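Researcher: I'm comparing several assemblies side by side, and this is the next one on my list. It has 1314 residues spread over two chains. Same procedure as the others: predict the full complex and return the structure.
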Amino acid sequence: MLGCLPVGGPPAGQQLVHDRAVTCAFFTPSESEALPSHLFSTGLYRAPESPAPNDFPGLMVTELYAHPYSEGGGTAAGLTSLLPGVENVAPIQLGAVGSSPASDSLGRLFLTTLQDQFWAPSGGDSYSGMYGIRRYDPRTGTVGPAMGTALRFSPSRARVFVGDWTSGQLLDLQGSRALTSVNDPVFIGEDFYYVAVLRSQPLGPPSSSTLIRIKPNAEPEVLLSASSGSLSVTAMQGTQTTPQLLVQQSPAPKPLPGFFMLDLDTLSATPLPSDLAYANLMSASPSGRWLLLSALLLPNTSEGPVTQTMTLVNWATGARMELSPFLNGLPELGPRSTPEWRPGRDELWIPTGDGALKVVEPGDNVTAVALPSGLGLAGLPRTGGQDFSLFMPDGQHWFLRGPNYDGPAYVGSVDHPTLPPVQLNPQGTSPHSYWDIGDGRLLVGASVEDDARQELYLVDPAAGTSRSVAGGGQLVAVGKTRALALLEWDGGRSSGTLTLIELATGEQTVLAEDVYLAAVDPGHFADVPAGTDALASGTEVAFLSRGRFASPYDGLWVTRLP
Amino acid sequence: MSSVLLFLCMVASDRMPTSDAAVAVDLAGEPRWVDARGDAGVDGGAENDEIPAVAAALAQNPPPAAPVVATGELRGKVLAKGSRSLMVDAQLRATRATGQVTSIEIDKGHFTTSLPCGLYALVVRAPGFEPLSLKRDPCVDDGALVLRLTPRSNLPVYETVVVAPRAEPAVTVRGQQLTTTPGALGDPLRIIESLPGVAAVAWPAPIYAIRGSNPGNTGYFLDDVQIPMLFHLALGPSIVHPYFFDGIDFYPGGYPARYGRYVGGVVAAQTRAPSEDTWHAAADLRLFDAGVMGSSPWPDGHGGVAAAFRYSYTGALLSVLQNSLNLSYWDYQLRADRRLRDWTLSLLVLGSSDHLEYDTPSGFPREYFIRFHRGSLRASTSLGQGTLAVRLTASADHSTGPVVQGYPMSVKAYSLMPRLSFERRTSHVDFEAGVDEQSQWLRPVVGFSESNVSDLGSKRTAHLAGAYASATARTGRLTLTPGLRLDSYTISGVSKTDLGPRLSARWLVGDKTWLVASGGRFTQAPSLALQVPGAENFGLARYGLQTSWQGALGLLAQSSNLVQLEATGYVQRFVLTDLRDPTLTVHDPLAGDFLVRRDGRSYGLEVMVRRPESQRLHGWLSYTLSKSERVVGRGVIGPSDWDQRHILNAVSGYRIGNYTLGARVHINTGRPALLQSSQTSTFIRLPTFYQLDLRAERRFLFDSFTLNAYVEVVNGSMRPTVLSVEQDPMTGAVSENSYRIVLPSIGIRGEL
């Protein structure tokens, strides 16, 4: 009778590593049709051997392992029997979803690692000087030198800038260029722009600033120079404008304007009003024509209040509009009141206490819009996309919540704001974020207490419906018709059941139990074509499993979605 | 007769007692002199003369025979000294100097007889009491005698009932041990944590895992009425007054067919029948509570009524010390028996209430409220040389508690539980059969909604029905009790039925040595880890029935000095609703994944050596070696959350005169606990827990009442209870989450 206990079978898929100490797993695109995505894991985090751990308590590193896999692979071994691809890698993450470090168009990874020669900041507890980004090529196993901590990619990811505030490297597919004194590095298209700042003393004020452009396979060209003072640039890319750089010079060199838009094709400058030379850019309209600027006005006396102005400026025409008079004083800036452009339109919306101000075609019309009673605009974070927005990506719907920011969230029609909104989550639960399925529907996570144990609600704003499809976990990925989630999440052990959920029916397929991290293969290429189903049948999923007690199935697994 | 002869021989010998003494004979036949006044136990009636002098005079000058015999009436009653209890099993003999002995019938403690005039030596004896002797001439002393027998100093005040060996595997606790066992704080139900097979998983919380099952798998019955919780909150006492108990039968497994719906063990307690001789009262005052109990016969003598009430001021004390905490609780019990023609009616009413409220750092108060009432009427009559009994029990439960994020969940549940049984006992076969049913209406109210929830938070109705039959056949050396129980569960419209065969056997293999075996199949509706009134009868559709197959084989031996040795090996196979993981950070019993259906097994060895309470040195030594396992999936069988591999209890008491000293030593190895760091997790064993409990009691025996004063300290060893362990993510250092509780108690108890 004792031998009859059903002990359960292994998870579906192929076990690559048998080890309870795997801390992270992720895919990176191979950028080649001929090669599957690269799969990596990291081992236990540990104090580095050098410097002495006691000198920097809390400084942790780990090793990165590459895992080639195929159907019917061999017996899984422990991590300690494997050779690490990169040593002394900074901890990548400890979340439940394996997110990939950045990679370039050749599938090379850019990893933060402990520097060979590091400098320790004097005072404070920052260890930033100890790390540097290295490029790791999984095809050859080569690891480059540490190059700084700032990372910028060109849209094609064929060009990469790695650096810090003293120096940097511009990496092309075939070579690299060392740069010094790099400020405001930015790619516009495949062209690289930065401001080279010269200082007479290492931490002193700029003595001169130069805006430099480096096109692919070309030498650097100087676009602007400020013999004294500083330059700062911000990339502007609207739907109705050519690429521009918003340039601010301080102090403004006479007779040149101190604040202007620089056309990168013609290198012509369009000055902005001089009284806004010290204003801050809050946002640009989707077309790129309108800028929302704010400035602080200092009081006349030391005890007077600091006031803020908000101004809309059409940088091409010079038209401007002061918003402050419409705001009945200053709006309380914050997540509930930050002005936001409606996606795809030059409509600025400013939440107010009992509604919203709608600015259509700035300068022409400002309308106070009433919302459903007791509700106000309140943004909701989107997973995998922009951090926080009042609007859904389609620009047709927005999010609302109660006055105290508690209770359920709603989604309503922007063009019909008084229509009853659709309730996203039940009373007593708090919404966290949503996934955009891509067909107008949302998958909203809400929880009663534990953020990791969310109820998942499928919301169709057009149909006005919201229904629960699963609960007690968190999403890993969302496809067109399915969602992958870690359900039955146990916060004590930080693991759950990897489950595939059919959105239409709520039907659940358990892939593995006691999973503490899962990662979905993004495909061969980082640039996923529009319309691709992220959870199509056959998609590879890697997961880390660790039971309550040591199990032969502990470790790294990879499986294909049914 | 022998004692009387011995008395006369002594009278004629040189071994004359002093003038203030009377002679007595103890159970071993040795005579000794006891005080004939005051505590000697004679009230009223004629003066006590010096018996030796009278006897000697009688021997030297026998009275002349008279042709006409004048008689006088000898009447009175016999009581136990220190109480108002009439002695129903006393023997009274009157001896004249001629050697003529007359046995006088005692009917329910009273005696009345006519005797020829003359001086008699009266000797009263009763088991467990010192014999009492006095002289009496019924023609001279015509007053009623009140004879008080003094309990023997090396015996308990009230004799422990000797229970004949049964086939069913029960550990029985009766008599004074119910309230004087060290470590139990006077609570009979707490004694079970000192019995073999019982793991107290988080002492002093009364959470018991028995033979590897979950704490929620053990049933508790009081006079066959299921009670949903045993103890008040916050280290409170049991919900039934200690002196309301008459005895406890603890079945760690293989319980009788008349009980059902639990896949673990059963604790079956019996209430004390109301006194029918006279009224009695008891009051106790302890450091943390006070209680009273009264019992009286009906005026017409057809039964009696007993009631108890207790109020604990622990909550008031705590509330004074801690402003942010409000705790109160009370309980009551009443039993009334009544004979009505051929029927005997017995009404049992009991209830309990707990209220705990405290503030949290977030400012939101948390409130727990648990209240239940039970009313049960049993009617029994003779039928065909057997006994037919009908019982109807009604219950009302109300519980409120915070669940996730402090949202309150409240549930009210009402039940009707009819029961019909028939018993017939013969010299060779005892037969028992019956049916029982529970219809329960549960009405929960939840302050929030989730989609993936069990029906624990939903309005639902449950109908549980059972039918059983068992027989105990005694054939020479073998006692065999086969049984069969059919249980049907219908919860929220989902029905499950299961047939549970059971078998118990006891085989006399040698002189006072038995082989004992038991086993069977048992079922239960899904349950939480802990029993909460109203949080039951749910999830049948989601989890199915809990089931167990149980088997046990043991050896029981009894030595000539009544020491019992019992060694039992057991094995059990379960399908249980486990807590999915005891490390859940969100304690949401409504969540659909809070519980999981899990296979499991347990096996082990229990050894118990017991010296009965009738001995000056008494107590028991119990040791449990157990292994409780669960299938946790992924090819792994791991220990259950409650698994304690070794459990040792040594409970002893020693009487010195009116003092009783007791001690208890408990040792258990740790259960599994999660050790989690920021990167990985593993299960380790909590440290071994041990405790030393001490108790001392002094008895003051007065004529009609007894006063006991006692002092007790539980966990005098001051060992902390470790609940969990943590690992510092930076240093890797492991720390224990523990509390150290020492429970001192001092109190007095008076009984009439």
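Model: For your comparison table: Chain B touches chain A through 46 residues (CB under 8 Å).
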